[in-house]
## 1
Amino acid sequence: MAQPSRIIDKTAAELAADIREGRLTSVEVTTAFLDRIEAVDATVKAFLHVDREGALAAAREADAAIAADEEASPLAGVPVAVKDVVVTKGLPTTAASKILEGWIPPYDATIVERIKAARMPILGKTNMDEFAMGSSTEYSAYFKTRNPWDTGRIPGGSGGGSAAAVAAKMAPLAIGTDTGGSIRQPGAVTGTFGAKPTYGSNSRYGLIAFSSSLDTPGPVSRNALDAALLHEVISGHDPRDSTSIDAPVPPVAEAARLGASGDLTGVKLGVVKEFAEGAEAAEPGVIAAYEAGVEQLVKLGAEIVEVSCPSFTYALPTYYLIAPSEASSNLARYDGVRYGLRTGDDGKHSLEEVMSLTREAGFGPEVKRRIILGTYALSAGYVDAFYGKAQKVRTLIKRDFEAAFEQVDAIISPTTPFVAFKFGERTGDPYQMYLADLYTIPSNLYGGPGVSVPVGLADGMPVGLQVCGPVMGDDIAYRVAAALESTQDTPLADTAPELEGN
Amino acid sequence: MSTISREEVAHLARLARLEVTDDELDAFAGQLDVILESMKALAEVDTDDVQPTSHAVPLVNVFREDLPQPSLSREAALAGGPDTAEDRFRVPRILDEEA
Amino acid sequence: MTKLNSYEQAVADYEPVLGLETHIELDTNTKMFCGCPTAFGAEPNTQVCPVCLALPGALPVANKAAIEATIKIGLALNCRIAEWTRFARKNYFYPDMPKNFQTSQYEEPLCEEGYVDVVVEGETYRVEIERVHLEEDTGKTLHVGGATGRIHGATESLVDYNRAGIPLVEIVTKPVPGTGALAPEVARAYTAELRDIVRSLGVSDVRMEQGSLRCDVNLSLNLPGEAWGTRTETKNVNSLRSVERAVRYEVRRQSALLDAGERIFQETRHFHEATGETSPGRSKEEATDYRYFPEPDLAVMEPSREWVEELRTSLPEPPRKRRERLQEAWSLADKEMQSVVNADAVDLIETTVAAGAAPAAAVKWWLGELSRRANETGDELGALAITPAQVAELQGMVDDGRLNDKLARQVIDGVLAGEGSPAEVAAKRGLEVVSDTGALETAVDEAIAANPAVAEKIRGGTHAAAGVLIGAVMKATKGQADAGTVRKIILDKLS
Ligand SMILES: [Mg+2]
Ligand SMILES: [Zn+2]
């Protein structure tokens, strides 16, 4: 297949090969993406912070290292955008919150260290829902990010900035984080690829915590192979994260290449009966695109098997007891003492008042709401009935999925019940917003991998198909997703309307 | 109508150190029912003898050897502080009493 | 003015129930959940990192040495070691606690159900241990603008996080009834025993004056035969003597209130070292709701039985057994040994004896002259600037006849003043017994010449009068003569 002529149209794998083999330099590639950001980000508003100088300096170093024939990582020289919830030394990190405005971290997240060690220039920090709480990026304290497919619509969330940056070709790759769907749902609604790895297989050290037992960082890209390459850069055991799994990383890049051959003979794909029962929440266009995708998978040789996960019904309530509880505690540290915003310190107010004024001024409404929910769920006498119960139900959900994976290799579903909605359409009703995560939350609860791959369009807007695997079975999810991609003449991500600009 | 009173929400806000407005009190009071509904939904599940799950892979005894690592420089440690004095983080008076 | 009953009256009318909560800072090389060093007295905010400053994104990893130390403490206190245990978050806002939650343990402590036996006035009291758990210390706050650095009246505070995250073991007793009038002594003896046990394990320096051992004293009173009363919790009682005083004070205060028909509030109180009184804690005590929940950033712990048994076999001789052994070796009566224990001098005497001093002499120095010095300055005996080896050296000089007791005390002055070892002080200050009999005879002759009347009396058989001449000789030799030798020379010359 002929390579596209524009740098920004190339895949990350192509760019890496061009750089490695001397057809392009990292500086040229990085410059192309920085220029693209300059041209279209005024429209998309995916970035909270762009680090042109830092990215170019890293690109020059990457070029020098490659020229010196140092052993290069498979993505050496390829730039990447990082969600602003991931801590970057010397680069502003806010989690899209006013409470961290102006904070410059003195350390790097483990995954950022690994990105730097792989000689991947960091283009900047991407927008998101404040503290990753939301499904539309409308809760960023700074500005809304637009969906490159239709700038009147949301890019998904919380990682709307990373998804939109990749969809608008302002970055070939990005880092996202996923607590209930924040990588996959934005991927689905922006026609990009997003992977939530197995919990614990990617370090959380330096990831600003939302819900400790659910948060997972992962890659965002335009196709499975690119994501897999980035996945392998950032994955692996980290002794600084006590919840990190000390086991070999599943061979996801190899799986993506295998999938691209388009053969799924012998692969059993599960369809969860109870997912379909909740399908009244899903838009018909989404169902149609998804079902067309399933047909393609069958053509590739996959066998579709119905499985039952009866405890799926409890996934949403379980999530809404665990996530806000942990968040209310994780966000207690933002008190205006050691870093970040301080309000009301006028000599009249006591510390408690200053802390309360600071947190009131620094947190947006959705964050406050979840803090209150979590405080309530943990407060006197409720912890066993609420959080403790949810952890036990989590065990039942895990058991259901483990049983399902005895019968099938992977489970498929729509990624999210609806295409990108218009701004403001669901902010009034938190429950409507939560439904966005209906199909993505289970894998956060049982801990396994889930990827969202573009499967088609509904009313001109992208639809994603989710492939979930068993714990540490990330490779099968990539394989199935890559196989689906192989059925598309043009990658869906490349059919987005051209944006105003350059 | 909400089953959780404004007073209860005000108490939670104080526990969480949020100086909420009256409007927020009303809004949150209504939305706290999400938690109660979740709790009700789960209450019906039989979890006797079920162990809690917190992580995808059950991890036990994750320890660190007692070996010192470099600390931050004091400059780096204090750099983010909204107000520092005498190499420490300054905070307003802690006790809520008339100065 | 707080009304107080006499202690005797109080314990005649009411039965005290004690409870003790002790926090011990472990002396691991690094903090509980990060690799920061734990050295005492470092410059502010120089032993901090993203984890112990609670920077966004930082995560804890538990220190294995701290867990081992806690298990050892649990074993030494006869506890059961949990087979499955985990950390929990205790949520509350306070500026010295960077995360605004303390990583602690809740319903699943590492060690449970133990006991310590203490002996007070020949009676053994069993203090039952409810739990021993592991948590982390807070930072240190400097209060500015109020009186003498107190939080009350301060206009602002300054926080240093060097101490934040140092491993802290919390040891909680069950309520201890049945001590009667000896409640203060039992509280003290328990604290001392606990300290000795922990020190013998080598897991903490347990220095109360540096805050590495801190006590909270719970106390309630009830009428004989009636249900236990409401308890108060007196915080941060930081010396053995204070433990005793705090109990005594609360007994007197509570009994006066109860006599007046008032009720006792369950409250936190503060102990005042200077006055020996307690006062209520924060005026607006908010109902505590710590919202404990299992710490999701840490893995559960399942201490293997092999590990626990391995730690058990590594335990040293229990202090009580050791004291019995030493008492016998030193041939001390029960009462003498009790004095040694009360003076906190067991280790000091043992080391002094090991350095060559006879037990009786070692006991004499530490309980006599050195205890007196410590009392004068208000220091703990062990904090005096003289080592057991130096005491042994000093006694050696006495044994050799190079020093008499008076000179030895002057040598101690020099050692405590930092002038060097006993031999160095003696040399520098010229403090040696004059054993040159020629020089002594000259001094005696001069004394006789200057006091003819006294000399006459002695010649007449009134030997007691020799004291005057001895005094004169001692004065002339600046105390460096051996009084016995001088006396002998005088009597030889005048009889
Ligand atoms: Mg405690
Ligand atoms: Zn540290």
## 2
Amino acid sequence: MHFGFTDEQEELRGVARSFLEANSGSLRVREVMETNAGFDQQLWSRISGELGWTSLIIPEAYGGSGFTFVEMIAVLEEMGRALACVPFVSSAVLASSVIMMAATETQKKEYLPAIAMGESIATVALAEASGRWDAQSIATSARPDGADYVLSGTKMFVTDGTMSDVIIVAARMADATDVAGGEPESGIGLFAVPVETPGLERTGLSMMDQTRAQAEVNLSDVRVPESARLGLGEQSTAWPAIAKVLDLTAVALAAEAVGGAQKCLDMSVAYAKEREQFGRPIGSFQAIKHKCADMLVLVEAARSATYYAAWSAAQDNDELPVVAPLAKAYAADAYTRCAQENIQIHGGIGFTWEHDAHLYLKRAKSTEVLLGDSNYHRDLLADRVGM
Amino acid sequence: MDLEYGEAAESFRQRFRVWLADNLDHSWRDKVELTTDPDDPASGPVDAEYVREFDQMLFEAGFKGLTWPKEYGGQGLTRIEQVVFSEEQFRSGAPPALNFFGDFLIGPTLLAWGSEDQKKRFLPPILKSEELWCQGFSEPNAGSDLASLQTRAERDGDEWVITGQKVWTTLGHTADWIFLLARTDPDQPQHKGISYLLVPMKQSGVQVRPIRQLTGTNEFNEIFLDGARTQVENVVGGVGNGWKVAMTTLAFERSATATTQALRYHQELDRIIDEARNVAGADGQPKSQDPVVRQQLAQAYSQVMIMKAQGFRTLTSILEDRDLGVTPSLNKIFWSEYHRWVTELAMSIRGPQGCVVGDDYKLSVEQQTYLFAKSETIWGGTAEIQRNIVGERGLGLPKEPRADRSPVGGRESARA
């Protein structure tokens, strides 16, 4: 019985903390935010090359390190704390998992080693105009044409879409016989589309959170070979794989949220000790002290939920579909609340552009809505426990 | 991360399960008139013949004092077996501990702080439930500010003579002994002049009066001490050291339910969800299909699962002998506020029918639980005191200004 991290896992976390403090401090984050791409290329090369974080959950057979989700969340907490402007969740979790889950052996060998090295950045395009990450919302179509498929549609909120080399597009198979009256989950295909493919157009969205890039991806008659379809259509629909990957990614976002919320608490506590009013540090007053205590309650609860979900992911057990949306909803809400309280505790200074408090509030908000908001995830949870 | 309890613990679980299957009479719950949730250790075990009988059966079968050393009548097992025991006891619907304050508070406290003589004298009768215990910490004017307690004990030859008043004493009317805090040196600063004493209840200097709570029932008591006497050797951890010893007891109180809390709330929530399925809402649909109620139930489910995970984290620290820090306070805030909220949710699902009580103000277990939840954010350190502990000890924030101490570095007043 040991519900915690091993010494090696703690060491990984420690390395991540100090590396990111040195290389993705708030000055650096602000520098990157101001650029159009919003991508810290330099940080990316180091975390993928030197530190190998992009290879964490990829099996050794495909050039990865073969670690579990537990190691992954140790790093993700720190990435969230540092607001690192890199396509880590999209490439090292979302796209990697989709490929591991849905691709053929040949496809895995084609894509995974480059992703593990960080040489290729991949993401997944799922949501569309409705801003929902469910099967029902997929209207982009894939039409077979000879030995090719032709993709048409518009994808929204493609995380890190502008900096990716490969975009894995979820589309509805036009040849699926059961599309008309069938379940929304049937007849979904996944296509690995290199971004230079003719007809694919990416537009970066100007987001309130400038630390996580989102893109609109337009596909007008994008022609890809049959070999681009993950799994080559062996499964009639890729939805089960997508659903599982969404669960894993939800856990990843929860871990980032825990790291960000912890940082908000740390900032608040430091300020409450140092800022004096009425001749005393404001942290001595219960109005402030209790707010900080509430933040710790939330952070620890979110942490427990996230660790449990990560354990479940690492075990690959049947609790994941329940605890993943649970962790995402709880941790994202906790993050938003902590980010708001952090501004409140800082008072006027917390409302300025110069202060970092707003960076966390904005990241919290973008985390909350990514993959579906907290109400959506609680509803998933209710469905999945048979409520 | 490894959530397996290990082979020894699982074989103990199997042994206890088999024993329960052979020995537990499930009909006991139908025979007693439940006044509170029988699964809530804080509300005190129900006063029923079977609870006593079952306790005796446990003792004879070697299921009491699991973690206590064999020389004091214990079983010499590890804490993981104790956890397994509590889980199975709860899952099986067995009665709660008869001698909760003896088994889980004063027993472990004596093992940590007691003299050899005290251990030999007091531990075996606790296990046999020959001596039942209650706790005397809070006073009318010393609740959250426990260290300002005014009950005093003075030496008179071989005895301590105790005068004062204790309040909110669970099971005061059935206990044979009380462990209490009394001021033995009024000239010492607040925390330092306190001693931890063991005092017999059945004597003329001790009066017990039940408190009628807002539930209409009386699980708690007031204890009046007027020249109550106890032998001079019945002080635990040394004269003037009572505060530290009391903190040990409170730590046991706060960690006794590491993994069973979630089990209990999971069962309770399952019942609430079931009710929501069976009660029709405004549109004739079950309330469980009302989108707002569904959100609330999903949130409740999340919090129960978080308690489960939090329980595993706490258990890990306990098993590895790590300092729990403010974890017990965090857990207390989390579960007590959850329970206050979820019982309100349950009441609102039941609608007006849920507010109808029986003759003589007889409440259903659900109504009792709803009302009783209001005490859970108060007893064992209020939610506000827990937040002070979390803020000051956990986060290192400066202490609240105090009006009962001199402003510049002066000695604390004993306020006696």
